[in-house]
Amino acid sequence: MPRRRLARSAAAVAAVAAVAAVAAALLAAAACPATAQPFPVEVASCFDTVRFEAPPRRALVNDVNMVQTVIDLGLADRVVGVSGIAGAERHLVGPPAVIAGLRQFAHRPTLETVLGETPDFVFAGWSYGFSAATGLTPEALATFGIRTYALRESCIRIGRREPAGIEMLYADILALGAIFGVRERAETMVADFRRRIAAVTARTAAAGRRPRMMYCFDCDTPAPPVSVGAEGMTSVLMTLAGGRNIFDDIADSYVRVSWEEVAKRDPQWILISDHRIPTARIVAYLTSVPELAHVEAIRRRQFVFVTYAEQTPSTRTVGAVERVARAVHPELFE
């Protein structure tokens, strides 16, 4: 069987397995005996500590990955509005009634649009909703008595944090568990994710090679594409899956790079963002540019498609690690 067909077949099986694994984790969490969690609680949010006197009742959530996480944690009934998901709703996974019940109040939220929703909590990230340019910041919201939690990966946008790793994702899930009073549910989910990541890395540790990999977003035009440096979750995903990010020398998260540098660094696999741009259009462009014809990933059509929630920190990231590892190291997962 050709390698790319094997990768696609493995990807399909792994995708089903990943969905089943998340569902199993949620069922296991639901089966845990309910225990009243004491409040107040304090959680670290980037470089601040935020105190919660009670669980949020009117939460706003920005962007697909964070919306997916609150759905998977069973918190959709606490959410009164979401933003940043327009055009990508088809990628959200959950009960149809839950997905249909998500009310979009804005695409790019501002301080004014958020205040208009009278929330008591906002879950977003720097460059994932929070922005000094729009005035939507945790500090501004705090003056109105609105608590916030910032996506851990995004803290690199405002200061130095610990090096990127899968622990950033676990920190987000555990923090949300504490904030919403579902700590046991979050701990059960994280324990399942740790087990699954350990199972993948135990296999990829035996790999005789770590293929060169690139993440590609906005990759359907001659304009500089978006890729990922060492500080983005997508780079962590590549490493855990047994690959090496060709832009791991960039001490940042998501950055624009030149096509010339892509050609020079010659990725062997390309992770293509299946977000709002049709993947067929991206592949058609990549395979039509003469200057990229020698790139191994393009020449051998070695592409893996990842959704936005999979390649940014969310409860779907672990499933993507499993799927990408099987695609690039099929010999380890026979």
UniProtKB/TrEMBL annotation:
<keyword id="KW-0732">Signal</keyword>
<dbReference type="InterPro" id="IPR050902">
    <property type="entry name" value="ABC_Transporter_SBP"/>
</dbReference>
<dbReference type="Pfam" id="PF01497">
    <property type="entry name" value="Peripla_BP_2"/>
</dbReference>
<feature type="signal peptide">
    <location>
        <begin position="1"/>
        <end position="36"/>
    </location>
</feature>
<protein>
    <submittedName>
        <fullName>ABC transporter substrate-binding protein</fullName>
    </submittedName>
</protein>
<feature type="domain" description="Fe/B12 periplasmic-binding">
    <location>
        <begin position="58"/>
        <end position="334"/>
    </location>
</feature>
<dbReference type="InterPro" id="IPR002491">
    <property type="entry name" value="ABC_transptr_periplasmic_BD"/>
</dbReference>
